[in-house]
Write a structure and sequence with these properties.
alpha+beta, 2 domains, elongated, single chain, two-stranded antiparallel sheet
């Protein structure tokens, strides 16, 4: 399962991968990713050490437990079913859960 393979503990989670190595993992607003990507493209040095130490200092309680995510997905499925029953001509995007 991708969430386990890439150690995704919250939503949203972003990974910055370069040459097959995960350089950074976290919330997309924690870094200026466009600058990081451009630096990697142009060969400029990018430091990820402070991001690693901040992630290590993070409390586990800041992550959403899988049970809570499952409950929210179940609720979303119920809302989608209610939407489909009341709206015959509009079609939402399909909701998929792995």
């Amino acid at each position: 399962m991708p969430s386990q393979d890439f150690v995704i503990k919250g939503i949203p989670t972003c990974l910055l991968v370069h040459k097959g190595k995960i350089l950074w993992r976290g919330h997309p607003f924690e870094r200026k990713l466009a600058e990081d990507i451009n630096a990697l493209i142009y060969g400029t040095e990018v430091s990820f050490e402070s991001a690693k130490s901040e992630a290590a200092a993070e409390e586990p309680s800041s992550h959403v437990p899988s049970e809570e995510i499952s409950a929210k997905l179940s609720s979303a499925h119920e809302l989608l079913a209610a939407f489909n029953q009341t709206t015959s001509d509009a079609k939402p995007l399909s909701l998929t859960c792995n």
